[in-house]
Amino acid sequence: MASSKPNPVRTAAFTTLGEKRLYIVGGLQGPLPSGTPTVPGVNQFASLDLTVPTWNANNPPWTIHPPLPFTIGVYPFFAVFPKSQAELIVATGDDALPVATFDLNSNLWSLADAFVSSYTSSSGVLAAVNPTTDTIIVPTGSTLATSPEIYGTFLYNIATKEFSVERGPEMVGPHVPATLREYAIAWSSVRGSVLVYGGRGELPDNKWQYSSSLLEFSSTTRTWKELTVSGPSPGGSNWGCLVPAYNGQKMVLFGGFTRDVLTPSIYILDVAKLEWTKGQDIDVSLMRFEHVCTAAGDSFVAWGGLNSANSSTTFKDPVIYDLKAGGWTEQFALTSPSTPSTPTTPSKDGSTPPPNTPGGQLDDSSSSNTGAIAGGVTGIIFVLLVVGFFFFKRHRRRQSQERDSLPTKNIESNKAGHLSDLNSMPPPPPPPSEPWSKDIPPSPRN
Q1: What pLDDT, in 10s, does the model give residues 222-237?
Q2: Shortest CA distance to 195 belongs to which of 160, 244, 254?
Q3: Which of 150, 162, 308, 324 is 20 to 30 A away from residue 299, measured at CA?
Q4: How far, in whole angstroms, is CA 329 from its chain's centroid?
């Protein structure tokens, strides 16, 4: 396996193995030439090592692997890892949907039977895998050869080779088109479900209907539902990229279009709270769609894609977002080394939160630290008062003992002189006021 850079492409199939390595397969170089119905895909297979602690965007740790043993179609369909994580499963964009597997130990490809015949290939129809049940989930699949045609969510069990079809995401309501595609999709280990954001579908009148919903497919009930989320909405996004970060605690959505306008935005979803936070926009010259992305440690990485539908240039170097500091950087780091002096990640209400919190989320420990400091100061003052009162009581006791030890016979014989001496001594300190005697316990006796 050589160490060099892959050809920059768009629409590559991609997946990440355990936040350790990003795999990309196939793709296209540039848009389709005018009048050309199809363009052969780029037959390449590469991976990016995400375990390297730090590297620069212009010199990423790529590895080039043996290419696919056959010519792929226009759009590679998906690339996923089964539960065993021993092989990569890739489906091409051909109508027959042949499946190829790459053995990570032997570095060899092999062909397998298609899990559904006469599949209708379409750009932007993506898939995810449930690693618990080894089930590949295609949100909006369709077939041509069957009568009638089949539309819906395709489910294929890798182990048992069982194929089934369930209702598609349009079941949540008319605002989600039945022909939904170009959506962002990811498996959520925290929720144990597939998450789909955005996408668009073509209507009978040749117009587009956009989705701005966060949808969830439950493998248990085999149904779709729309999740209620808070924070700034990414809007009607299509061709964006959604990947988990921090072991699934966050989801990162980047790039694509917002109703046909290329967006520079990046959003971070707190999966437990179902709350979006908007990050720092990328420079407009680096906006993209049909790209691949991944996340590891404190870094989010996007690679490939196009900046314009009319552009023939694809991005060869990755762009990196520091999830901890909240800004774009040229340096990948599993652990963010520093925090910028001026945080650049707006919070959900548009203000700037403190740094050093993943995804720009406020750290609850900041308020508790203030309370701890105030409590510590109060405790120190209390201790000083108790110690002072202890020495005050001890001083009074010593003075009383000294008066009691004066010789009686000297006082009897020289009463006038000694009484005058005693009267000239400074009076003892006054006893403590009533609040002190109630608030502070008596000091221990010797």
Answers
A1: 999 999 999 999 999 9
A2: 244
A3: 308
A4: 17
Provide the greatest CA pair distance for the chain: 133
Question: Is the separation of the CB atoms in 205 and 149 below 8 Å?
Answer: no
Structure tokens, 395: 């001083």
Q: How far apart are CA 397 and CA 417, in angstroms?
A: 25
285: its two tokens: 């010259």
Distance between CA 333 and CA 36 in Å, rounded?
A: 42
Of the CA atoms within 13 Å of residue 272, those in its CB half-sphere come to: 6
Closest CA to 123 of 22, 201, 207: 201
pTM of the entire structure? 0.74
Tokens of 391: 């020495």
pLDDT given for residue 112 in this prediction: 74
**What are the boundaries of each domain within the chain?**
13-360, 388-439
Residue 386 has pLDDT above 90, yes or no: no
The tokens for 134 are 């080894």
Contact between residue 142 and residue 170 where contact means Cβ atoms under 8 Å apart: no
Amino acid at 78: F
Question: Distance between CA 117 and CA 96 in Å, rounded?
Answer: 5
Cα–Cα distance, 224 to 216 (Å, whole number)? 6
Neighbours of 32 (CB within 10 A): 11
If one looks up domain 13-360 in CATH, what number appears?
2.120.10.80
- Sequence letter at residue 115: F
């963010």: which residue's tokens?
336
From the list 174, 168, 98, 171, the residue with the least C-alpha distance to 140 is 168
pLDDT confidence band for 144 (50 / 70 / 90) = low
Say how far apart CA 387 and CA 391 lie, in whole Å.
Answer: 6
Distance, CA of 131 to CA of 279 (rounded, Å): 30
Alpha helices in 42-160 (DSSP H): none
DSSP 28: B
d(C-alpha 90, C-alpha 88), whole Å? 6
Give pLDDT tens digits for 56-78: 999 999 999 999 877 665 566 78
